[in-house]
User: Which sequence fits this backbone?
């Protein structure tokens, strides 16, 4: 994708603060961090979202997320860690090149990453479970 900023960053055409790199991925610091150390895992090949990412690369990406979480927690001494991955504008995706957010959390960081809990009826929960549980 010639006009994709994350393709250019992942392939080193645009400089970034890289904290890890291998054959498939580059991990960079986010320029608009939720907290100190907020980083992004970018595949070097272009995939728009998780639906487009092949399963073998998905496995590698999330294994890398776990390893980065361990390493970043060790080095930063953070108190918690969010792993966030947005797909589609409705879900908050703004850059349409698959990425995983690695967000170290600190007890005083003032951030709120979450949702407003709903109150579905027992029937709604049963119906949703039935639909999702079907082949
Ligand atoms: P999304 O909302 O798509 O899940 O996340 C996009 C993220 O990319 C945002 O957190 C934003 O701060 C970050 N971002 C956007 N453009 C750039 C850039 O050019 N460089 C870096 N390092 N981060 C970027
Ligand atoms: Zn791209």
Assistant:
């Amino acid at each position: 994708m010639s006009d994709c900023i994350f393709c250019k960053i992942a392939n080193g055409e645009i400089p970034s603060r890289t904290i890890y790199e291998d054959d498939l991925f580059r991990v960079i610091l986010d320029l608009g961090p939720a907290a100190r150390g907020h980083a992004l895992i970018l595949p070097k090949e272009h995939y728009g979202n998780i639906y487009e990412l092949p399963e073998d690369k998905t496995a590698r990406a999330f294994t890398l997320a776990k390893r980065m979480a361990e390493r970043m927690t060790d080095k930063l001494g953070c108190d918690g860690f969010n792993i966030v991955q947005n797909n589609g504008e409705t879900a908050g995706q703004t850059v349409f090149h698959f990425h995983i957010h690695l967000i170290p959390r600190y007890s005083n960081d003032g951030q709120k990453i979450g949702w407003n809990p709903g109150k579905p009826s027992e029937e709604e929960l049963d119906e949703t479970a039935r639909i999702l549980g079907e082949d």
User: Anything to note?
Assistant: The pocket of guanosine-5'-monophosphate (ligand 1) is lined by residues 5, 16, 28-32, 40, 86, 92-95 (CB under 6 Å). The radius of gyration is 17 Å. The longest strand covers residues 100-105.
